[in-house]
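In the laboratory, one determines a bound structure by crystallizing the protein with its ligand and collecting diffraction data. In a computational setting the workflow is compressed into a single prediction: the sequence and the ligand go in, and a structural description comes out. We illustrate the idea with nicotinamide-adenine-dinucleotide.
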Amino acid sequence: MAASLPSSAVAPRLRAAVVGTGAIVSGSHLRALAVHAADVELVAAVDIDAARLTAFAERAREADGIGEFTGYTDLDAMLEAERPDLVLLGTPPSLHRAQTVAALRAGAWVLCEKPLCLSLAEFDEIAAAEREGGPYAAVVAQHRYGSGAVHARALLTSGEVGEPLVAHCQTTWYRNRAYYEVPWRGRWATEGGGPTMGHGIHQTDLLLHLLGDWVEIRAMAARLYHDVESEDVSTALVRFANGAVATVVNSVISPDEVSRIRIDTVEATVELTHLYGHGNDDWVYTPRSGLDDQARVRRWRTPASDERSSHAAQLAGVLAALRAGTRPPGGGADARRTIEFNAALYKAAFTGRTVTAGEIAEGDPYYRAMHGDHPDWAPKENA
Ligand SMILES: NC(=O)c1ccc[n+]([C@@H]2O[C@H](COP(=O)([O-])OP(=O)(O)OC[C@H]3O[C@@H](n4cnc5c(N)ncnc54)[C@H](O)[C@@H]3O)[C@@H](O)[C@H]2O)c1
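The predicted complex, in C-alpha cell form:
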C-alpha cells in the first residue's frame, strides 16, 4: 500500500465496488461515494437481482461525480474481473461474513453494513482473513463520525467534562408488522437477533465509543408484539471499566420514536437526542449547578465544524486508512467489542445471570449464535 497521502490529485482515485444495491446502498452509500468522488470512483455494482441493479444504475446516473461502472450478478466474478481496492457491502446480514471474507481474500478492503456479522465466531473468522497493513474490514457505525460525536468523545476522554457517572442509552423505535414480513428480518439465522442487533446497535456502539470498555451486564429480553423468532425489546444494566453505570433499552415497539444517549458526568449532563442521524444542535451540555466558568461551558457547546453523522463522514476515515495502510475506523477490537456486548446482553437476558466481559469464548453457545441455543429462544424449525 502506498505511503500516507493527503486526498489530492497526486494519488490516483481508489476503485470501489458496491454489493447489494438495495435501500442503504442506493441511498447512504451512493451519497457517500458522491461526496468523495475526487478520491474514489465506483467501478462496479453487484446484486443477484438484476432489476435492483438497473434501478441502482438509474439513481447513480443522477448522482454527482458517479461515472460509468459495470454491473454484476455474482460477487466472485466481480472480484476476479475488477480487483477493487474497496468493497462497500449492503446485503442482508447473513451474507456479511462470507462476502467480507471473499472480498478480503481478493485483496479488497471492506466497509460492511451493520451488523458486520451474526456472532463472535463469525467476527473471529473475518479477523483471521485480514492481513497486517491491509486489507482490513470495518463496519458502518455512522453515528460515531459526525462532528457532535467526535467532539463529545474528546470532551469525555480528555476529562474536560469530568468523570462519567450515569448513562442512559435508548433506542425506542417503531416497526409495524409489514416490516417483519421481509423474510430475513426477526430471525436468528438471517438478522442475528431483534432490535438489539438490528436497531439499537447504533446507539450501544456509540455509548461504548463514548464510555469505553464495559465490564458486566445484566439484561432482560421479551417478545411482546411481533411474530418473530428473536426479541422485540431488550433492556440492560451495564457497568463500565471506568465505574460508570448505564441502562440500555432496545425496542421496535415504541410508537413515539427516539434515539437518545444521556451521560451524567461530575461536571455536566451530556445529551444526544435524535432519530436516525445527528448534527451539533442535537447535542446538549448542561453544566452542574455552581459551575460558573462560562467560557468553559461555551467550549463544550461549540465544535469547530458542523458535520452530520453519515456514511460519508465514516467513508472519509476509511479512505484515509486505506491509503495509509492502517486499520480503518470501525474495525478490529473496537468492532468486536460491540458484537461481544450484544452477545453478552443476550446471554444475560436468556440465562438470568450477570455476564462479564471476556467470558464468552469458543465453546460457549453464545460465541456461536446470539440465541445461545436457549430452548425458549431457539430458531423455529422450517421457518
Ligand atoms: N447503517 C444504517 O443506518 C442502516 C440502515 C438500513 C439498513 N442497514 C443495513 O444494511 C443492510 C441491507 O439493508 P437494506 O435495508 O438495504 O436491504 P435491502 O433488502 O433493501 O437490500 C439488500 C440487497 O442485497 C441484494 N442481495 C441479496 N443477496 C445478494 C447476494 N448474494 N449478492 C449480492 N446482492 C445480494 C438484494 O437483492 C437487495 O437488493 C442490512 O445489513 C441492514 O442492517 C443499515
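The first strand starts at residue 14 and ends at 19. Keep in mind that any predicted model is a hypothesis to be tested, not a measurement.
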